[in-house]
Amino acid sequence: MDIDLDRAVLLPIDMQRAFDDPQWPRRWNSSVDANGLALIGAWRAANRPIIHVRHNSVTPGSTLAPGTIGNSFRPGFGPIGDEPVLSKSVNSAFIGTDLDLRLKRLGARHVVVFGISTDMCVSTTIRTGANMGWDMILVPDACDCFDLPDGMGGTIRAEDVQAAHVATLAFEFCRILSTAELAGLRLAA
């Protein structure tokens, strides 16, 4: 596995309180916060760069709208010190932002991604980043997603949404590593 940890940037995506609002469908990963916090802790301990991504919805009434409690970071997921926050209003953290420039200025080679929701902003960011030439790494056990309507009156379980998106992303757009694998690399670095 070729990962230059000194050139790896952690990108937590949309780890915001809005997703705990009851209007959102059921999520599946009860370990998303613990795993995400473990990654952030490992990155901070190794003094490696983190860019926190926040979704600022422009949709009226959204739980992710700026100024709402839902727009704030989940406990423990906000920046510390000079860790930057990148705000976006679309699914990809690369579109309409300076993320590509920030990564280049950091001398990054690898972008390690986790967050909510696997099938939406996480997937779109990974696809865009891969198309732009970045080595994208997904941490699926630090991601979460929701049950979705199937368009025919039924529901696709969040676990199935997750499995399909991880498989699709891994097939063409990114590498897959678990929280434990990355934390182990951090300790060995």
How would you briefly describe this protein structure?
The chain has helices at 32-45, 99-105, 118-131, 158-172, 179-188; strands at residues 8-13, 52-55, 85-88, 110-116, 135-144, 148-149, 155-156, 175-176.
Describe this structure in words.
The protein is α/β, with parallel strands linked by helices and 189 residues long. The chain contains five helices and eight strands, in the order βαββαβαβββαβα. The chain has a four-stranded parallel β-sheet with strand order 1-4-5-8. It has a two-stranded parallel sheet with strand order 2-3. It has a two-stranded antiparallel sheet with strand order 6-7. α1 (32-45) packs parallel to α5 and α3 packs parallel to α4 (158-172). The radius of gyration is 16 Å and the shape is globular. The mean pLDDT is 95.
Strand fraction = 15-25%
How far apart lie the N and C ends?
A: 13 Å
Write out the strand line-up for the largest beta sheet, numbering strands in chain order: 1-4-5-8
Question: What is the H/E string?
Answer: EHEEHEHEEEHEH
Number of helices: 5
Can you give the helix content as a percent range?
25-40%
Number of strands: 8
Calculate the mean pLDDT score and round it.
Answer: 95
Largest sheet features: 4 strands, parallel
- Tell me the radius of gyration: 16 Å
Weakly predicted, low-confidence segments? none
**Class computed from helices, strands and strand pairing:** alpha/beta
Shape: globular
